[in-house]
Design brief:
By secondary structure, the protein is mainly α. It has 8 helices and 2 strands; from the N terminus they run H-H-H-H-E-E-H-H-H-H. The chain has one domain. Strands 1-2 form a two-stranded antiparallel sheet. The radius of gyration is 17 Å and the shape is globular. 33% of the residues are buried.
Length: 197
C-alpha cells in the first residue's frame, strides 16, 4: 500500500488490514468496523478504475459498486490471506457486479446494445485507433475461457487489470515470481486480444 509518505505507516497499515481480515475470517464481526476505514480508499480506487471503463451514462456509481462488493465479501466465508488477496477478490466481485448489471440492462432493452467498456492500452488494444469500446460480457466470457485454459493467467489479468495491483503485489497474491507474472501477463494480453478482435 502506498501512502505516499511514511513507509513504516504503510507497513503498519498493511499489517493491521491483514490482522483484521484474519479476525473477520475467524468470525469476529466487529473487525469490519475497524477494517472499513483502512481499506475503503483502495476499494473506491478499484471501483473508479473499473467505472472509467464503463459508458458515461452508467447507472452505477463507484460508491455503490464498493458497497455492494464489500457486502458480498464480508458476507462470505473466505479465509482472507492478506490485503492483496482481499483486493483481488474485491476486484473480481466488482467485475461480477458490473457483468450482472450489464446483463440486466441488456435484458431490459430486449437485446439492445450491450454495455461497452474501454480497455486501457495496458491490457490490450482492441478498439484500435477508433477507440471503440469492448462488450463487457465478451470480456467476461473471454476471461472465463482463459481461466479454463490457464487459471493462473486469468487470475493475473484480474489482479493486474481489474484490481490495479503491480507485478510484485500480483506475484505475492498468486505465489509466483515477478518474472512469471510478467510472462503470463504478456501471454494473456496476446490471447485476449486475439479472442476479442
Amino acid at each position: 500500500m502506498d501512502t505516499g509518505a511514511d513507509p513504516d505507516l504503510a507497513m503498519t497499515t498493511e499489517h493491521a488490514v491483514t490482522r483484521l481480515l484474519h479476525e473477520l475470517s475467524a468470525g469476529n464481526e466487529h473487525a469490519v468496523e475497524q477494517l472499513v476505514p483502512l481499506i475503503y480508499a483502495e476499494l473506491h480506487a478499484i471501483a473508479e478504475r473499473q467505472m472509467r471503463r464503463e459508458r458515461a451514462d452508467h447507472t452505477l456509481q463507484p460508491t455503490a459498486l464498493v458497497h455492494e462488493a464489500f457486502l458480498r465479501l464480508v458476507g462470505n466465508e473466505t479465509s482472507w490471506q492478506n490485503r492483496q488477496h482481499f483486493l483481488g477478490v474485491a476486484a473480481q466481485a466488482m467485475r461480477r457486479i458490473l457483468v450482472d448489471h450489464a446483463r440486466r440492462q441488456k435484458a431490459r432493452k430486449r437485446g439492445g446494445g450491450a454495455d461497452k467498456i474501454e480497455l486501457d492500452e495496458q491490457l490490450i488494444a482492441v478498439g484500435g485507433e477508433s477507440g471503440e469500446g469492448l462488450d463487457l460480457e465478451a470480456l467476461d466470457e473471454a476471461l472465463t475461457r482463459l481461466a479454463e485454459l490457464d487459471a493462473r493467467q486469468a487470475r493475473i489479468v484480474e489482479l493486474r487489470f481489474f484490481a490495479g495491483l503491480d507485478v510484485e503485489e500480483t506475484a505475492a497474491v498468486v505465489g509466483v515470481s515477478p518474472a512469471t507474472v510478467k510472462r503470463d501477463w504478456q501471454f494473456a494480453k496476446a490471447w485476449l486480444k486475439r479472442e476479442l478482435s
